[in-house]
């Protein structure tokens, strides 16, 4: 593109251009290394650092918004970077070329009609009024447009870095699992792909570094729970003679059998591993970590904004979306206060109905998710009845929990595909003027859909399961059937742990396998085609030029980056919202992200067309989502500790029963007795009453005589739980 055209486009988008080199003060640069702490941290980071040659060797410059009215720029073009041809970097040239193509306003020239100057509208054609390259793509004048990748040789591992271009350097040192424990070459990533994509990889790398400490702490917490399970008094009571002699009431009145407390032995052992004093401490630690992560990321973001010269970056001059322009009436125009040019405009009254529709659809989708959770509840109840009469009744609770979690995972993944299609349709109907507002609206919908889909079953188990006012001989409403779902005597937290483990790990494994296999399919097809062509031409294989190679790659869109951010923020919720339930979540997340980061890098470099290097000052709306999740994590962990775990009841038992640190008799304290004769009074006598049994036990704090109202202990424990949440 001619240099004058680059300058004109840069002025139009208010691009900042270099005006003066920043001379590095070597004395000040060495000053931080004098502290002992800095030398210590530097020595720790040394094994993970990349070679300094991978840094993009471009001196820092002071910049200013370019204006053709400022004569001070003219003498810099040929001197600041050596020559006029080097004044703009390759990524800046790509961005300016894209902006020119996207903002071009082609006009149908008719000699019989007068032409207007500064035309900003495109005459209607086939119902479209699109401007720029988008119109030509729609009318099939062009198939696609994209910046060219730099050439990439098949094997660059044994080639010296001096003989590699930027793409090959990234492929060798970044997009490979061989360097998975090395820092990322951020300056090279930014130079080749732009700040917008670079911010995603910076966030992923920063998140991984922050996960190291929680992963180690969580592993220690898990080992402590597994090692001390055999010394836990309540677990020993359930598995010992007390559990063998204690008959539990049926889980339903009409068809479920009586069972012994000892049948929960395995379940109680697993429960203790994830529900002990150490996991409570870990949950508090993770709540603080979530907030620190957000605050430290803001600092990191601010540093990068300064280093990448994006402090004053604004995106208000982005081009109008073609879909918006095509729906605007010719007479509906408004002046842009920045450019002072009349632009297409769609009144709010024409768009409000679509926003209302979006809200209604979101509500319906949440209801659908709640319906899937209800279906799994029915499944668990039916399976509990079927398995209690089989030889695997000891493991029935674990089998039911695992299978229901797998069902929830499958439903969530299937619904995610549907939700993506629905979100795109709704966002398209809303007619957003700019791509940034379109993306933000799409992000909010997708996150709400994914939040409901993946977290609904977790919230149900954590906050609602086993909270009904029903009790044996009074399960279900009269005439509505024998229906209820109660927690195991060991508590509901272990079920939450298993549910979280399966959904989190399953989602990550399936996504990574799908990403890899979906990218390898086209590769295998191309290899087969090349081999066939080579054999057909008897050894003659013409080398493709770069644009032909790139044309066969997938197109990269901003929605692809949204998917990566969405996967990251959903995982962040798994790690922080229910930290008390699964201390190994940070370790699993870290292991996944190490692979995910290099897989994403490999995809962008080898399987996608080169992305336009858009500038950015931050990660946008994702910062607000991360911040919101971190605040929610404090609340959810407090409620899970108080409401779902055994921490508060055990503390109340020690205080109310004055046992000190001993939990001897705790299991018996949490169980309430009900007379078998009371089943006759309701007409709901369970089958196969054990001989000699006059009463059975169930988990609740109620009186042992009719009408079985809540006991004083219930209100004491409830007050303690509420006090813990408030404090």
Automatic annotation (TrEMBL):
Residues 1-186 form the Anoctamin dimerisation domain. GO terms for cellular component: plasma membrane. It is found in: Cell membrane; Membrane. GO terms for molecular function: chloride channel activity; protein dimerization activity. It is a multi-pass membrane protein. The chain crosses the membrane at residues 197-224, 270-290, 354-379, 399-422, 442-463, 568-595, 616-643. Its main location: membrane. Residues 189-726 form the Anoctamin transmembrane domain. This is Anoctamin.
């Amino acid at each position: 593109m001619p240099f004058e055209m680059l300058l004109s486009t840069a002025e139009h988008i208010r691009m900042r251009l270099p005006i003066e080199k920043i001379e590095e003060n070597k004395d000040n640069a060495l000053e931080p290394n004098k502290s002992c702490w800095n030398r210590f941290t530097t020595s720790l980071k040394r094994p993970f650092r990349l070679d300094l040659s991978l840094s993009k060797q471009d001196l820092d410059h002071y910049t200013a918004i370019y204006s053709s009215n400022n004569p001070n720029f003219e003498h810099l073009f040929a001197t600041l970077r050596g020559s006029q041809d080097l004044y703009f970097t390759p990524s800046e040239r790509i961005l300016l070329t894209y902006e020119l193509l996207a903002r071009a306003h082609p006009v149908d020239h008719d000699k019989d009609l007068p032409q207007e100057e500064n035309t900003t509208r495109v005459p209607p054609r086939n119902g479209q009024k699109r401007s720029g390259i988008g119109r030509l793509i729609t009318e099939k004048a062009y198939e696609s447009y994209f910046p060219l990748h730099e050439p990439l040789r098949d094997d660059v591992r044994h080639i010296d870095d001096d003989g590699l271009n930027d793409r090959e350097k990234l492929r060798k040192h970044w997009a490979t699992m061989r360097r998975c424990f090395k820092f990322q070459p951020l300056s090279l990533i930014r130079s080749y792909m732009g700040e917008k994509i670079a911010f995603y990889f910076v966030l992923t790398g920063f998140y991984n570094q922050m996960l190291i400490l929680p992963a180690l702490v969580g592993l220690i917490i898990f080992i402590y729970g597994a090692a001390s399970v055999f010394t836990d008094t309540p677990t020993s009571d359930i598995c010992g003679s007390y559990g063998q002699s204690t008959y539990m009431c049926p889980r339903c009145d009409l068809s479920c059998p009586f069972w012994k407390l000892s049948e929960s032995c395995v379940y109680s052992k697993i429960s203790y591993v994830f529900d002990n004093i150490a996991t409570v401490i870990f949950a508090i630690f993770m709540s603080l970590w979530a907030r620190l992560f957000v605050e430290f990321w803001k600092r990191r973001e601010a540093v990068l904004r300064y280093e990448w010269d994006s402090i004053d970056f604004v995106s208000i001059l982005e081009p109008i979306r073609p879909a918006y322009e095509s729906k605007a009436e010719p007479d509906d125009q408004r002046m842009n206060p920045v450019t002072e040019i009349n632009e297409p405009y769609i009144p709010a009254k024409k768009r409000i109905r679509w926003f209302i529709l979006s809200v209604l659809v979101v509500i319906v989708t949440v209801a659908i998710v709640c319906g899937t959770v209800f279906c799994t509840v029915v499944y668990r109840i039916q399976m509990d009845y079927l398995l209690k009469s089989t030889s695997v009744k000891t493991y029935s609770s674990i089998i039911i929990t695992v299978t229901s979690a797998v069902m929830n995972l499958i439903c969530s993944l299937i619904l995610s595909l549907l939700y993506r299609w629905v979100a795109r349709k709704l966002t398209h109907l809303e007619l957003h003027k700019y791509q940034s507002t379109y993306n933000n609206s799409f992000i909010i919908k997708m996150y709400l859909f994914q939040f409901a889909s993946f977290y609904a079953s977790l919230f149900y188990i954590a906050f609602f399961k086993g909270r009904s006012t029903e009790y044996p001989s009074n399960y279900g409403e009269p005439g509505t059937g024998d229906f209820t779902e109660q927690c195991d005597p060991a508590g509901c937290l272990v079920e939450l742990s298993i549910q979280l483990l399966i959904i989190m790990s399953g989602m990550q494994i399936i996504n990574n396998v799908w990403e890899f296999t979906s990218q390898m399919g086209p590769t295998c097809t191309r290899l087969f085609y090349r081999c066939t062509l080579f054999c057909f031409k008897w050894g003659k294989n013409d080398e493709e030029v770069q644009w032909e190679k790139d044309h066969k790659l997938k197109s990269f869109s901003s929605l692809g980056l949204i998917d990566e951010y969405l996967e990251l923020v959903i995982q962040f919720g798994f790690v922080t919202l229910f930290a008390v339930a699964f201390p190994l979540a940070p370790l699993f997340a870290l292991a996944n992200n190490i692979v995910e980061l290099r897989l994403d890098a490999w995809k962008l470099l080898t399987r996608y067309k080169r992305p336009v290097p858009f500038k950015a000052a931050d990660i946008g709306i994702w910062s607000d989502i991360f911040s919101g999740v971190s605040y929610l994590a404090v609340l959810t962990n407090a409620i899970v500790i108080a409401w779902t775990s055994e921490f508060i009841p055990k503390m109340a038992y020690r205080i109310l029963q004055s046992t000190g640190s001993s939990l001897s008799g705790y299991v018996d304290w949490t169980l309430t007795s009900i007379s078998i004769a009371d089943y006759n009074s309701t007409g709901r006598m369970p089958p196969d009453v054990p001989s000699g049994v006059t009463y059975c036990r169930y988990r609740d704090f109620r009186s042992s005589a009719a009408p079985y109202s809540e006991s004083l202990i219930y209100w004491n424990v409830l007050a303690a739980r509420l006090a813990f949440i408030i404090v």
